[in-house]
């Protein structure tokens, strides 16, 4: 099993920045490098893709709505991923979820289907 723990959410004014962190633990996470991603869900809306990074860290992908403002990266610790969020807008307000998969995908995964592990979510609120 894999446990994902997110941190770094909070309340910030429009134009501000936040950095989300996600750390995976468990047997699968300790023995395999996992493809990971970030999704978000606003009240009354479906969960949507935000950003993802490949197992190697060499490939990344971003939703058009965050491109140029958010940056995903892998940490030095195995299966740790960060999401640096700059120039935040009120429409970025949502619960942000970290996701990971134990399957050996080499590509970046931009839909929810391939991910079989999810964090509990962290709230990001951007005030205008």
How would you summarize the topology of this molecule?
Blueprint: E1 3-7, E2 10-13, E3 18-25, H1 27-31, E4 35-41, E5 48-53, E6 60-62, E7 70-74, E8 80-85, E9 94-101, E10 117-118, E11 122-127
Parallel strand pairs: 2-11
Antiparallel strand pairs: 1-3, 3-8, 4-5, 4-9, 5-6, 7-8, 9-10, 9-11
Structure write-up:
It is a single chain. The chain is mainly beta and 128 residues long. It has one helix and eleven strands; from the N terminus they run βββαββββββββ. The chain has one helix at 27-31, and strands at residues 3-7, 10-13, 18-25, 35-41, 48-53, 60-62, 70-74, 80-85, 94-101, 117-118, 122-127. Strands 2, 4, 5, 6, 9, 10 and 11 form a seven-stranded mixed sheet that branches. Strand 4 (35-41) and strand 5 (48-53) form a beta hairpin. The radius of gyration is 14 Å and the shape is globular.
